[in-house]
C-alpha cells in the first residue's frame, strides 16, 4: 500500500516538474516578447514608414527634375538657333539654304545629342514653310495627326511642353519663332525620350515592394512602377484621380491599404506619388515578433529534450513496455520483453510476453488456413483472366470501362491498340481519343456520342461504326453499344464494340461483284455497239471479194487482185481482233512483260522501215532525231515498246494531211535509280490536232474525236487506250499536247535499265580494226564513236571528201587498210557518190567496206550503189544496226556460196500436226506441201500422243501443236510426250501453233516442254524460219 502511494506521489512530482519547465522556459518569455513587439510596432510603424518614403521621394524627384531640365535645355538650344529659324522661315524662297544649314550644322548637333545623351531617342523639326515634304532625316512638314495637333498648340504656347502620344511615348515640344519679331511660329522642335532610360531612377529605387506614379498636368500616367498587387495599384490610381487622398501637411497619406507620399511638383509640371503596401509594412514590423517566436521555439525544443531525458530516466521501464506493446500492435508477435523487476511493471511485462506468444500461435494457424484458401481463389482468378484474354486476343472486339468524371479508362482490352492504331496510354488517358480513328463528323462522332450518353444516362446502340486504323489505314466496321451503369466505385460507362469488318467486307464484295457484273453487261453492249461497224467492214470485203473470185475464176489477173484485197481486209480484221484481245488482256490484269536485252537501234530500224514507207506514200516529211543517246542496249520488252511507238506514229501518219511533217525524237537522260536511264520518245506532227476538251478523253477505250477530218479515217479507238496501259505497265508515263488545227505532240517516258557491253571479238571476227568517219556533224555519230573506242577500234575523223581521200592515201602509203568507211550523204565539197568513186579508184584491192549514212534512201541509193557503196544505212545509225548489217552481209555471202546446193529448206521433212479445226488443218497441210514437206494430222492432243507412241523414231521430224483442242489440249499433249521414257520423246522439237499470242501463253508453252511458239494466222515464212532453227 505504501509503494502504491509512493508511485502516485512520484508521478505527481514528474508532471509538476514538466509543467514548471514549460511555464518558466517557454510560456512566460513568449508572452513578454509578444507584448513588447506589439507595443513597439504600434508606436513606430507610421513614423518609420514616412521617414523611409521621404528619402526615396526626394532622390527620385530630384533625379527626374534634373533629367527634365537637361532635356528641356537641349530642345531650347534649337529654338535659340537664329540661323536655323531664319532659313526655315525663308525655306520656300531659298530651299537650298535650309538644306545646307541642316546638313552642315543642325544634323551633326542632333546626332551629337542622340549619341551623348542616353535619354534621347530622337529629335525632329517640323515646319509648314518647307516646299518639300521633308529635307533629310530630321526636318519635314507636319503630316501626322498628332504632330499637327501639337503644331497648332505651339501657336498658343511658346514655352516648352511635355506631350504623350497615343502609344504612350513621351515627347518634349518647343515652338520655333521667327527671328525678327519672335511672335510668329515658323516651326516646331520635338524630342522623343527613351522611357526606359529616362525613368531608370524609378526602377532602381526599391524600398520593400514600393510603387511609383508620375502624372502629368493633364492627369495622364507618364511613368509607373507597379507593386506585385495590381489591384492595389489600381486602387491608388483611382484614389488620386478621385482626389480622395487625406494628406497631412507634408503630403503623407495613411490608408487602410497603403502608405503614400506626394512630392512637390517637378519643373515640367509632373507630380510624383510614392506608395507602399501597408500590409507588407505591418508584416515587416512583425517580423521581429516572428524572430522572438523562433527563439521561443528553440527554447521550447531545448526544454522538451531536457524534459524527455528526465522523464525517460524516471519511466524507462514503462517506455520499454510501451515499445513492446507497439511492436505487438504492428504485428511483431515474436517480440521479447526483458524486465527483471519483480514489481507490478515486471508482472505486466510477463503477462504481455505470454499474450504475444499465444497470439503468435493463433496467427500462424490462421495464416495457414488463409493461404490454402488464397491459392484456390488465385487459381480460379488466373483461369478466368486467361480465358478472357484468350477470347479477346482472338477477335477484334473492343471492351472498355470508363470513368465518367474525366473519361479515363479503368479498363480497356489490349487489342484496341493493334486494331485502331492508337496507343493504349492515349486511350486510357482519354477514351474520346478513339474518335481519331472514327470516320464520322458532328454528332455522329464517337466522342460526341460518349459525352451524350453520359449526359443523358441512356444507352445508345450504334448499328454501324466505320473506323480506319491510324497507322495502316485499314478500313474496319463495327457495331457497338454505349451505356452508363453503376458499381461499387460509382457511376461508370461501358463501351462494347463488336467487329463486323468481315461481314461488311463480304457485303461490299457482293455489291462490288454485282456492280461489276452490271458494268460488264453494259460494257458488252457498248463493245458490240462500238465494234459492229469496224468488224463488218473487213468481213464484208472478204465475203464480197470471194463472190467476185467465184464469178471471175477464169480471169487470173482479177483473181490475183481480189485475193490481194482479201489479204488486206484479213490483215485489217486481224489488227482489230488483236486490239480487242490486247485491251481485254490489259483490263483483266493478265498482261505480262517479256523483259530482255533490246537494241534501240534495231527497234528504230523496224519502226522506220514501216513508218517511212507510210509517210512517203502520203508525201509527208518524216524526220528522226537522236539527242544525247549514251546507250544502245537496254533491258525492256521490245515488242511492247514497238507496239506503243507504232500506235503513236501510225496515228500521226493518219491524222496528218499529205505534205505534212512528222518528227520522231529520242532522248536519254540520267535516272535517279542506279543502273537505269530515262528514255524519252517524242512524236510531233503538224496534223489536224485535237480540241482541248478531247485531250483528257484520248486514252479512253473506244474514244475518237468525231470531226469532219476524222470521219473518213477508220479505227476502233482502242489504240491509245492500249498504248497508255502498256506504258503504265512498264512504269512509264505518257502525255499529250495538242491544239486544234496545229498538230499534236505525244511524249512517252520509260525508265529502262542500261546494258553496257564491249564486244571486241565481234569486230575482230569481221575483220574490222580501223574505221573512218566522213562527216561534218559529229553529234550524229557520237554514240558510234564511243562504242568503237570502248572496243579498242582505231578511228579516223575527216570532215569532207578531200580530207577523206588524203587520209586514205596516207594509210595506203603506210601499208594500212581502212576496214570500214562511214560517209554522210551530204558533204561540203563533193557528193557521196563522187567520193566513193574516188576511193574505189585509189583502192585497187577493193577491200574497204563503204556505208553511206542517209536520211532519204531514194535520193541517193542508185548513185551510191553504182559508185561502189556496199550498203546504204538509215540515219540515225546505232551500233546494233551496224552489227546487224554485218550479220546480214555474212549471211548473204554464206547463202551465195551454198545457193546451188539448197533447193527447198523443208523438202522431204515429215511433220505430225495436232489441229482440231478442219479448215486450219487444210491450210496447214497445203502450205507445208507447197514447201515439199508432208504432214500427218491428229484431231486432238490425245490422238497425237497415241500416234507418237505407235510411231518409230524418224517417222516424224517435228510436231506442230495446236493449243485449244477437245479431249486433250496442246499443253497436256506436249507434257505427255515429254513424259515418255524414250530419248526421241525428249529430243523431238515441238512447236506451238496457236492464236494465243501473249507472253504468258508463250511461257506456258515452254513450261509444257515445247521448243518454240508461232502465232496464228500462219505466216509460212515465219513457220519456215522457226522450223529451220530446230532442223536436225
Automatic annotation (TrEMBL):
Single Gene Ontology MF annotation: phosphorelay sensor kinase activity
Histidine kinase domain: residues covered: 530-754
Chain positions found as 4-aspartylphosphate: 962
UniProtKB keywords: Kinase, Membrane, Phosphoprotein, Transferase, Transmembrane, Transmembrane helix, Two-component regulatory system
Catalytic activity: ATP + protein L-histidine = ADP + protein N-phospho-L-histidine
GO CC entries: membrane
Function of the molecule: May play the central regulatory role in sporulation. It may be an element of the effector pathway responsible for the activation of sporulation genes in response to nutritional stress. Spo0A may act in concert with spo0H (a sigma factor) to control the expression of some genes that are critical to the sporulation process.
Boundaries of every HAMP domain copy: 312-364
Pfam family, one: HisKA
Protein name: Circadian input-output histidine kinase CikA
Family affiliation: In the N-terminal section; belongs to the phytochrome family.
PANTHER family for this protein: HYBRID SIGNAL TRANSDUCTION HISTIDINE KINASE J
Record EC number: 2.7.13.3
Coiled coil: none
Record's subcellular location: Membrane
Domain Response regulatory: 770-890, 910-1031
SUPFAM superfamilies in UniProt: ATPase domain of HSP90 chaperone/DNA topoisomerase II/histidine kinase, CheY-like, HAMP domain-like, Homodimeric domain of signal transducing histidine kinase
Enzymatic class: transferase
Residue ranges crossing the lipid bilayer per the database entry: 21-41, 285-310
Amino acid at each position: 500500500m505504501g509503494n502504491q502511494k509512493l508511485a502516485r506521489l512520484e508521478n505527481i512530482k514528474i508532471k509538476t516538474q514538466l509543467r514548471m519547465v514549460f511555464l518558466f522556459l517557454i510560456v512566460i518569455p513568449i508572452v513578454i516578447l509578444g507584448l513588447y513587439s506589439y507595443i513597439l510596432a504600434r508606436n513606430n510603424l507610421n513614423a518609420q514608414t514616412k521617414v523611409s518614403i521621404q528619402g526615396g521621394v526626394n532622390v527620385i524627384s530630384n533625379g527626374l527634375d534634373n533629367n527634365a531640365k537637361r532635356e528641356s535645355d537641349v530642345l531650347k538650344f534649337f529654338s535659340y538657333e537664329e540661323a536655323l529659324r531664319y532659313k526655315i522661315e525663308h525655306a520656300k524662297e531659298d530651299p537650298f539654304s535650309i538644306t545646307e544649314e541642316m546638313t552642315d550644322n543642325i544634323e551633326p548637333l542632333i546626332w551629337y545629342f542622340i549619341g551623348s545623351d542616353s535619354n534621347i531617342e530622337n529629335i525632329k523639326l517640323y515646319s509648314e514653310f518647307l516646299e518639300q515634304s521633308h529635307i533629310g532625316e530630321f526636318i519635314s512638314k507636319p503630316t501626322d495627326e498628332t504632330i499637327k495637333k501639337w503644331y497648332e498648340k505651339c501657336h498658343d504656347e511658346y514655352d516648352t511642353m511635355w506631350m504623350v502620344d497615343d502609344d504612350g511615348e513621351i515627347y518634349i515640344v518647343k515652338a520655333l519663332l521667327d527671328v525678327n519679331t519672335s511672335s510668329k511660329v515658323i516651326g516646331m522642335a520635338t524630342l522623343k525620350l527613351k522611357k526606359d532610360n529616362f525613368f531608370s531612377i524609378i526602377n532602381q529605387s526599391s524600398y520593400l515592394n514600393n510603387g511609383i506614379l508620375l502624372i502629368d498636368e493633364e492627369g495622364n500616367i507618364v511613368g509607373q512602377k507597379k507593386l506585385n498587387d495590381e489591384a492595389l495599384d489600381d486602387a491608388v490610381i483611382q484614389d488620386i484621380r478621385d482626389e480622395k487622398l487625406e494628406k497631412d501637411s507634408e503630403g503623407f497619406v495613411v490608408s487602410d491599404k497603403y502608405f503614400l507620399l506626394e512630392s512637390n511638383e517637378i519643373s515640367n509640371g509632373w507630380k510624383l506619388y510614392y506608395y507602399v503596401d501597408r500590409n507588407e509594412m505591418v508584416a515587416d514590423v512583425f517580423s521581429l515578433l516572428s524572430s522572438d517566436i523562433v527563439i521561443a521555439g528553440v527554447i521550447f525544443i531545448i526544454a522538451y529534450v531536457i524534459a524527455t531525458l528526465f522523464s525517460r530516466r524516471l519511466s524507462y521501464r514503462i517506455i520499454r513496455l510501451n515499445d513492446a506493446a507497439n511492436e505487438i500492435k504492428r504485428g511483431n508477435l515474436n517480440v521479447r520483453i526483458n524486465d527483471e523487476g519483480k514489481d507490478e511493471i515486471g508482472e505486466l511485462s510477463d503477462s504481455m510476453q505470454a499474450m504475444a506468444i499465444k497470439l503468435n500461435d493463433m496467427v500462424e494457424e490462421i495464416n495457414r488456413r488463409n493461404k490454402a484458401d488464397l491459392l484456390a481463389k488465385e487459381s480460379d482468378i488466373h483461369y478466368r483472366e486467361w480465358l478472357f484474354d484468350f477470347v479477346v486476343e482472338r477477335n477484334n472486339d473492343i471492351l472498355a470501362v470508363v470513368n465518367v468524371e474525366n473519361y479515363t479508362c479503368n479498363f480497356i482490352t489490349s487489342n484496341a491498340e493493334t486494331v485502331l492504331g492508337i496507343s493504349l496510354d492515349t486511350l486510357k488517358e482519354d477514351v474520346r481519343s478513339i474518335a481519331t480513328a472514327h470516320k464520322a463528323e458532328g454528332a455522329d462522332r464517337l466522342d460526341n456520342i460518349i459525352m451524350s450518353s453520359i449526359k443523358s444516362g441512356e444507352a445508345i446502340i450504334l448499328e454501324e461504326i466505320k473506323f480506319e486504323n491510324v497507322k495502316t489505314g485499314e478500313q474496319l466496321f463495327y457495331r457497338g453499344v454505349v451505356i452508363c451503369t453503376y458499381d461499387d466505385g460509382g457511376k461508370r460507362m461501358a463501351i462494347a464494340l463488336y467487329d463486323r469488318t468481315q461481314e461488311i467486307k463480304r457485303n461490299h464484295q457482293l455489291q462490288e461483284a454485282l456492280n461489276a457484273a452490271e458494268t460488264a453487261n453494259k460494257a458488252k453492249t457498248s463493245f458490240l455497239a462500238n465494234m459492229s461497224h469496224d468488224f463488218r467492214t473487213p468481213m464484208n470485203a472478204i465475203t464480197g471479194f470471194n463472190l467476185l473470185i467465184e464469178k471471175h475464176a477464169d480471169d487470173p489477173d482479177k483473181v490475183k487482185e481480189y485475193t490481194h484485197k482479201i489479204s488486206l481486209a484479213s490483215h485489217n480484221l486481224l489488227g482489230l481482233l488483236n486490239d480487242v484481245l490486247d485491251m481485254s488482256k490489259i483490263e483483266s490484269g493478265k498482261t505480262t512483260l517479256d523483259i530482255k536485252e533490246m537494241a534501240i537501234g534495231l527497234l528504230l530500224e523496224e519502226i522506220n522501215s514501216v513508218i517511212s514507207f507510210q509517210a512517203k506514200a502520203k508525201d509527208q516529211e518524216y524526220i528522226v532525231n537522236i539527242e544525247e543517246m549514251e546507250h544502245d542496249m537496254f533491258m525492256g520488252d521490245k515488242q511492247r515498246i514497238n507496239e506503243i511507238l507504232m500506235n503513236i506514229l501510225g496515228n500521226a501518219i493518219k491524222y496528218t494531211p499529205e505534205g505534212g511533217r512528222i518528227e520522231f525524237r529520242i532522248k536519254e537522260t540520267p535516272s535517279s535509280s542506279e543502273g537505269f536511264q530515262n528514255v524519252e520518245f517524242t512524236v510531233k506532227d503538224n496534223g489536224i490536232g485535237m480540241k482541248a476538251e478531247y485531250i483528257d478523253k484520248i486514252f479512253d477505250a473506244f474514244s475518237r474525236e468525231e470531226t469532219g477530218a476524222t470521219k473518213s479515217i477508220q479505227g476502233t479507238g482502242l489504240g491509245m487506250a492500249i498504248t497508255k496501259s502498256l506504258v503504265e505497265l512498264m512504269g512509264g508515263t505518257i502525255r499529250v499536247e495538242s491544239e486544234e488545227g496545229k498538230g499534236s505532240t505525244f511524249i512517252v517516258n520509260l525508265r529502262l535499265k542500261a546494258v553496257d557491253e564491249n564486244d571486241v571479238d565481234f569486230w575482230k571476227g569481221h575483220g574490222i580494226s580501223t574505221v573512218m568517219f566522213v562527216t561534218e556533224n559529229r553529234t550524229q555519230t557520237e554514240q558510234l564513236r564511243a562504242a568503237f573506242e570502248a572496243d579498242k577500234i582505231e578511228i579516223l575523223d575527216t570532215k569532207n571528201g578531200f580530207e577523206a581521200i588524203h587520209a586514205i592515201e596516207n594509210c595506203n602509203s603506210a601499208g594500212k587498210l581502212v576496214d570500214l568507211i562511214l560517209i554522210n550523204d551530204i558533204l561540203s565539197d563533193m557528193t557521196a557518190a563522187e567520193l566513193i568513186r574516188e576511193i574505189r579508184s585509189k583502192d585497187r584491192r577493193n577491200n574497204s567496206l563503204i556505208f553511206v549514212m542517209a536520211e532519204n534512201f531514194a535520193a541517193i541509193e542508185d548513185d551510191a550503189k553504182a559508185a561502189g557503196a556496199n550498203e546504204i544505212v538509215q540515219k540515225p545509225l546505232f551500233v546494233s544496226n551496224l552489227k546487224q548489217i554485218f550479220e546480214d552481209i555474212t549471211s548473204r555471202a554464206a547463202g551465195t556460196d551454198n545457193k546451188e546446193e539448197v533447193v527447198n529448206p523443208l523438202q522431204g521433212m515429215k511433220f505430225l500436226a495436232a489441229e482440231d479445226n478442219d479448215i486450219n488443218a487444210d491450210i496447214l497441210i497445203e502450205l507445208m506441201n507447197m514447201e515439199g514437206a508432208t504432214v500427218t494430222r491428229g484431231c486432238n492432243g490425245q490422238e497425237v500422243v497415241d500416234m507418237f507412241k505407235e510411231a518409230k523414231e524418224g517417222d516424224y521430224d517435228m510436231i506442230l501443236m495446236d493449243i485449244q483442242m477437245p479431249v486433250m489440249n496442246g499443253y497436256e499433249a506436249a507434257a505427255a510426250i515429254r513424259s515418255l521414257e524414250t530419248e526421241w520423246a525428249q529430243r523431238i522439237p515441238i512447236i506451238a501453233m496457236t492464236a494465243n499470242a501473249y507472253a504468258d501463253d508463250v511461257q506456258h508453252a515452254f513450261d509444257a516442254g515445247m521448243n518454240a511458239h508461232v502465232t496464228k494466222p500462219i505466216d509460212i515464212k515465219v513457220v519456215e524460219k522457226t522450223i529451220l532453227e530446230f532442223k536436225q
